[in-house]
Amino acid sequence: MRVLLIFAFLIGSWTITSAQEDTKKSSGPVAIAPMPSDTSSADSMLVTVILKYQQDKSFSELRRLLEANGFWDVFPPADSRVVSWNVAVGFGHIVTLKMPADGVRRLYLAISNGAWGAFNSEVFMSYEYMPIWKDYIERRQDAKEEREDK
């Protein structure tokens, strides 16, 4: 699985240059056609997208830019599922998506074409830690009780 994620990231990074050249030829927002994919399959991944407000713009300017860029038409990509979407006041949007591993390029294009000028963006591969944390806390408590019983 780790190799698949690294491979997907590298492929997405490798296609960045050609994707940027393709979008420069277009005069308007670029629709990103999703490839059919099942986001519940083993090759899906979690991605956390941070969209930080560009502080030199008002909300009305941000909204105009997002509409002009077609942001809401391309983000989130159609083949992804929104796991969570939070707004941190004074910071921006924090979005966690579950998406197919081969969707990195579509996500990159959606952010590059749609959020440009309104948000500074960061993208992180992530994973669900809650079950791991709960299991650790439970095992830790069991070990503590065992020590106390001795």
Summarize the structure.
The chain is α+β, with helices and mostly antiparallel strands and 150 residues long. The protein contains 6 helices and 4 strands. A 4-stranded antiparallel sheet has the order 2-3-1-4, with no helix packed on it.
Question: What does it look like?
Answer:
By secondary structure, this protein is an alpha+beta fold. It has one domain (2-149): 2-Layer Sandwich (Alpha-Beta Plaits), CATH 3.30.70. Helix content is 45%, strand content 23%. It has 6 helices and 4 strands. It has helices at residues 2-14, 16-24, 59-69, 71-74, 104-114, 130-149, and strands spanning 44-53, 81-88, 92-100, 119-126. A 4-stranded antiparallel sheet has the order 2-3-1-4, with no helix packed on it. Strand 2 (81-88) and strand 3 form a beta hairpin. The radius of gyration is 19 Å and the shape is elongated. It starts with a helix and ends with a helix. Mean pLDDT is 78; it is low at 1-39.
